[in-house]
Amino acid sequence: MARYIDYGSSPRGSLAFLEAAKAGALLAGRDHVLPEDIKAMRHPVLRHRIVLTFEAIAEQVHPETIIDAVFDAVPTP
């Protein structure tokens, strides 16, 4: 999948994850973040932060597909 990514998320993406996950936990009535909170926010937080290559656009590869592949490759703590 790396050949489909021209630019990835910046450090601001991780800060957005932090804030979104904290908000999701709060809305769920928790005072702590779970890995599920991060997974639930992966597409809204990262979708617009990934710049695809021309090859990805030509092959109609969606950012969500790449995001899911990355999340599947990294084990959940």
The shape is: elongated
Distance between the termini: 23 Å
Kindly report the spatial arrangement of strands forming the biggest sheet: 1-2
User: So how many helices?
Assistant: 4
Strand coverage percent: 5-15%
Radius of gyration: 14 Å
Q: What does the largest sheet look like?
A: 2 strands, antiparallel
Order of helices and strands: EHHEHH
User: Structural class of the helix and strand makeup?
Assistant: mainly alpha
Helicity, as a percent range: 55-70%
Low-confidence stretches: none
Counted beta strands? 2
Whole-number average pLDDT? 93
Write the layout of secondary structure elements.
Blueprint: E1 5-7, H1 11-27, H2 35-46, E2 51-52, H3 54-58, H4 63-73
Antiparallel strand pairs: 1-2
Could you give a quick summary of the protein structure above?
The protein is mainly alpha-helical and 77 residues long.
Model description:
The structure is a single chain. By secondary structure, this protein is mostly helical. It contains four helices and two strands. A two-stranded antiparallel ribbon has the order 1-2. Helix 1 packs across helix 2 and helix 2 packs antiparallel against helix 4 (63-73). The two termini are 23 Å apart.
